[in-house]
Design a protein that fits this description.
The chain is an alpha+beta fold and 141 residues long. It has a single domain, classed as Sufe protein. Chain: A, CATH 3.90.1010. It has six helices and three strands. It has a three-stranded antiparallel sheet with strand order 1-2-3.
Length: 141
């Protein structure tokens, strides 16, 4: 399994292939179409991310000493964004997820090309994923 920085470097390289943001949005939407779907049982209030304009559900579970995330969203761009986060964070050690700085988000210019509400939603998704990992770390620590 690749480390978080290795996966981030891959994403940065992929986004550098596109010249404009319309192409990057299309790529993000494409990533969302390939997102492994969350079990319907987790599409509830408990797994709903607060602070997102669209509805986003994220489920996390421990597998060995790693965190595995699944998610879904009712918005295609948001689904692609959460797919990027899952690609980077899922399957990683809880401590690595909790400590990840996710430089790729700023490097590819994602936050600055989102509406303020989507940008806040992105921050909320990251916070929730890191909070779960931190909680898991304490349980297994």
């Amino acid at each position: 399994m690749q480390s978080i920085p290795e996966t981030e470097a891959e994403i940065i390289e992929e986004f550098s292939l596109f010249d404009d943001w319309m192409d990057k949005y299309e790529y993000i939407i494409e990533l969302g179409k390939n997102l492994p779907l969350i079990d319907e049982a987790y599409k509830n209030e408990e797994h709903l991310i607060k602070g997102c304009q669209s509805r986003v559900w994220i489920h996390a579970e421990a597998q060995d000493d790693c965190v595995v995330f699944t998610a879904d969203s009712d918005a295609i761009i948001t689904k692609g964004i959460v797919a990027l986060l899952i690609r980077v964070l899922s399957g990683q050690k809880a401590s690595d997820v909790a400590d990840a700085d996710l430089r790729f988000i700023d490097t590819i210019g994602l936050k600055e090309h989102l509406t303020p509400t989507r940008s806040n939603g992105l921050v909320s998704m990251v916070k929730q994923m890191k909070a779960f990992a931190a909680g898991l770390q304490k349980v297994n620590g």
